[in-house]
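<instruction>
Derive structure tokens from the sequence
<entry> Chain with its tokenised backbone below:
===
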Amino acid sequence: MMDRTIRLVISDIDGVWTDGGMYLGEFGEEFKKFNVRDGWGVRMLKEHGIPLCIITGEDSRAVELRAKKLDVDYVFVGVDDKVSVAKEICSKLQVTLQETAFIGDDLNDLDLLQRVGISACPADAYPTVQEEVDHVLIKKGGQGVFREFVEYIRPHLYP
């Protein structure tokens, strides 16, 4: 892994914190399954004083509830342009994109994955994404890959 200092972590949700599946009830209610191990990844970031920002294309109340439960610093749902949101957060925190780590899994994550200091994806990410990131993780989306990602970047965390 390259020698980079990371002061901000950004994560996609669907396909990273979840397996990418979507459960729909008979009345149109939406359900997502999260892995509790990823909560430990959030906790590790907090222990290091590193802010976490979730940016997802899905406009999902389930994501907002999970983020609130874990006390995630910044949550943006229903986002089309992840780079613009990332730049806004970086500006607010006085952090550069090169001091940012991002984990994503699909084509809508590519632009941001190519601009950050450290990029990674789950083992089952879209093949084009796997070709473009710094590191393809061992776990698949929804299997605790966010925690694996935090452990991977841990040596580079600096508040």
Remarks:
- The chain has a mean pLDDT of 95.
- DSSP finds six helices and eight strands in the chain.
- The longest helix spans residues 82-93.
- The domain at 8-156 is CATH 3.40.50.1000 (Rossmann fold).
